[in-house]
Amino acid sequence: MEKVENLSEQLYSLVMFYGPKLVGAIITLLIGLWVISIIRGALRRRFEKQNVDPSLRGFLNSMIGILLKLMLWIAVIGMMGVQMTSFIAILGAAGLAVGMALSGTLQNFAGGVMILIFKPFKAGDFINAQGHSGIVNEIQIFNTILKTPDNKTIIIPNGGLSTGSLTNFSAEPKRRVDFTFGIGYGDDVDKAKEVLMKLIKEDDRIINDPAEPFIAVSELADSSVNLVVRVWAEAANYWGIYFDLTEKVYKTFDKEGLNIPFPQMDVHVHK
Fold it and tell me: DSSP for 154-195?
């Protein structure tokens, strides 16, 4: 009976000692998370108002949120009466173990930092990397989010993006549009060049800077004489020019008596 009374007294003492601390820690945690969400929202609006690079907005917002939550948890644990020196030592040892286990994640974090520093691409650019193509929608702490032209979402780890090869189609304001058109053997090459140049001059989107339109015979293929056409345009007009000129050449060559050949084979039967 005496042991039960002693145990009850100890439990009562523990509840009276830790109860208020626990309640205070829970209240602090809830209020802290609410304040952090307000701070992140204010930062997001501030970044938009000051026209901060969209690539940097998400990264900084996520980073600040993680740091604030870490500080909040340390404060809450301290309110519970845990010795912070011991806790920090334990946290450091745990951090080392987690760091070794999550080396790939840390590499992705470092890759994200390198991308934001050297800016090989930014939000809104169309890139090809790691076997995927799409518009950069967001650069996060560990991953970069791409949107494909057919509205698929692709998530690529930043580690590979920062160390692998990458093609940025939006880096330059102007792009060269390359075509290859074939005519039949026996067709008039000069006439084909004249028709192509006429179609090029009719398209106001084609520009003469940094170079004039170029047309030349590029190959004597098995079934056709191939002409290469190179014109320059604003990057935004690339695909419009490519599709429109291809269609116009098909229609105009037929009207002008120029043949667009297709692979064929002659079979000779000997009796």
Answer: EEEEHHHHHHS-EEETTSSSEEEEEEEEEE-TTS-HHHHHHH
Length of the chain: 271
CATH value at residue 56: 1.10.287.1260
Could you say which DSSP state residue 14 is in? H
* 10 token code pair: 């100890």
What six digits make up the tokens of 69?
């939550």
Tell me, yes or no, whether 187 lies in a domain.
yes
Helix (H) or strand (E) holding 70: helix 54-79
Q: Note the pTM of the prediction, 2 decimals.
A: 0.62
Torsion over CA: 47, 51, 52, 53 (sign): positive
153, part of any domain = yes
Residues 60-90: pLDDT tens digits?
A: 777 777 788 878 877 777 777 666 565 566 6
Encoded tokens for 235 = 């990057």
Round to whole Å and give the CA distance between 93 and 218: 66
